[in-house]
From TrEMBL:
<dbReference type="InterPro" id="IPR050109">
    <property type="entry name" value="HTH-type_TetR-like_transc_reg"/>
</dbReference>
<dbReference type="GO" id="GO:0003700">
    <property type="term" value="F:DNA-binding transcription factor activity"/>
</dbReference>
<keyword id="KW-0805">Transcription regulation</keyword>
<feature type="domain" description="HTH tetR-type">
    <location>
        <begin position="5"/>
        <end position="65"/>
    </location>
</feature>
<keyword id="KW-0238">DNA-binding</keyword>
<dbReference type="Pfam" id="PF00440">
    <property type="entry name" value="TetR_N"/>
</dbReference>
<dbReference type="InterPro" id="IPR009057">
    <property type="entry name" value="Homeodomain-like_sf"/>
</dbReference>
<dbReference type="GO" id="GO:0000976">
    <property type="term" value="F:transcription cis-regulatory region binding"/>
</dbReference>
<feature type="DNA-binding region" description="H-T-H motif">
    <location>
        <begin position="28"/>
        <end position="47"/>
    </location>
</feature>
<dbReference type="InterPro" id="IPR001647">
    <property type="entry name" value="HTH_TetR"/>
</dbReference>
<protein>
    <submittedName>
        <fullName>TetR family transcriptional regulator</fullName>
    </submittedName>
</protein>
<keyword id="KW-0804">Transcription</keyword>
Length: 194
């Protein structure tokens, strides 16, 4: 992740809200510059283009959410690994412009930035899978190492399903899906080979 000046960091903090709310196409550089207390030409002193700004915001969103995932799993002492993160996802989505931006961007990437977005989001998911697998090994060490990848993929499927509900259907649908998915996934973890 590239180092930014304090002014550029301020622009990114404002831009993440704009991009999370409006998406790439509808977010206005004029509005972002005005909210940062500058004119649009001054914004170009920090970022060469809208794509450049979007990419910097994306890098910061991926990093913020990666840190959140690691923190969430480090604090979690659930008997069922991943439960804490899955159950906090809805609240995190409401509170974090980084997560709203990250998910919106992953599902609707600007065409010109699709390779960068895909690679960054896949890296984020890979890290989520890694910390889940570590938690699985700690909480349920009886699960054979050879089977853990199956549980990781299933967990990422649960999280993906929850993300879809947050983006398209809202908090009530998310809560309903979470209850259903966690019953099935939790039962599968509880029945894991001993």
């Amino acid at each position: 992740m590239r180092t930014l000046t304090p002014s550029a960091q301020k622009v990114c903090a404002i831009a993440v809200e704009q991009f999370a709310e409006h998406g790439y196409d509808a977010a206005s550089l004029n509005d972002i510059a005005a909210a940062a207390g500058m004119r649009k030409p001054s914004l170009y002193a920090h970022f060469s283009s809208k794509d450049d700004l979007f990419e910097a915001v994306f890098e910061r969103a991926v990093e913020a959410e990666r840190l959140y995932v690691e923190q969430c799993f480090a604090q979690c002492d659930d008997a069922l690994p991943g439960a804490g993160y899955a159950h906090c996802l809805g609240e995190r989505y409401q509170q974090s412009a980084h997560l709203r931006f990250l998910l919106r961007t992953a599902f609707f990437p600007p065409a010109a930035l699709r390779p960068i977005i895909s690679a960054g989001f896949e890296g984020y998911l890979a890290r989520l899978g890694e910390v889940f697998e570590q938690a699985l090994g700690t909480c349920l060490p009886q699960v054979p190492v050879a089977r853990r990848g199956v549980y990781v993929d299933a967990y990422l499927g649960v999280v993906d399903s929850l993300n879809v509900e947050l983006i398209y259907a809202g908090p009530q649908a998310y809560a309903r899906r979470l209850r259903a998915m966690w019953v099935v996934f939790g039962d599968a973890l509880g029945a894991a080979p001993r």
